[in-house]
Amino acid sequence: MIMKLLSWNVNGLRAVAKKGFYQYLEQCGADVLCLQEIKAKTEQLPEELLRPQGWHTYFFPAERSGYSGVAVYSKIEPQEVRYGMGDEKFDMEGRTLVLDFASFVLVNAYFPNGGRDEERLRYKLDFCEAIQDFVLSLERPVLLCGDVNTAHQERDLARPKENINNSGFMPVERAWIDRFLAAGFIDTFRLFHEQGGIYSWWDMKTRARDRNVGWRIDYFFASDVLRHNIKAAFIQPEVMGSDHCPVGVEIEI
After folding, report:
1. For 121, 135, 140, 179, which has the most beta carbons within 10 A of its beta carbon?
2. By three-state DSSP, how is residue 138 classified?
3. 133 catalytic per annotation
4. Which one of 91, 117, 147, 243 is the catalytic residue?
5. For helices 118-137 and 171-182, what crossing angle results, to 10°?
6. What tens digit of pLDDT does each residue of 173-194 get?
7. Total domains in the fold of the chain
8. Alpha-carbon span 240 to 34, nearest angstrom
């Protein structure tokens, strides 16, 4: 069986619902759709977003209103769902949902943005270390997807030299991705696409999407043991509605 999984930072679930989300959900062909930055508590969402027909849904909002939060829509009911990593420091911001699909564990994550100040950068780096420890502790094949808020290599953003000192492309942030991959994971997109110029986020204020001045900061990482099960990995820049676009994989299970 081939399973199609998608991940999308929607920059507000209620906002993207007004910009074609329902049509995308119906037509995307996904077995699982992971969302980040839903910016809503469940009581703020209409029934058609909470429980669309044909989908099992799971929401993990932040304690703070209108901020962060993750969700998963799945055609396949997981064996188990875990809300957060068990660390209140990160779980209060609604950053991880963990679904067990028997042949692998799916971790949907929204990594912090480290751009505000030094304290927030440290929080982001601490989250990176915590989630690496967490997925390794599962001792299972893992798919980790979401908005990582870091471009790994120069080919992953349009203007690397101008951004070397900006959060999202700082050496200390990129070094964590190096360590994560060295710990036994693969960047699934790079199994199929070597070239640069394909991005998943664009700055809205400067209309950067019109000029494709973007960053690839949304990923599907997979345990190396799943390498030969990954049949496709892709980005959907044509899908509008957010400053991010969906990314996806197809995996044989």
Report:
1. 135
2. coil
3. no
4. 147
5. 0
6. 999 999 999 999 999 999 999 9
7. 1
8. 16
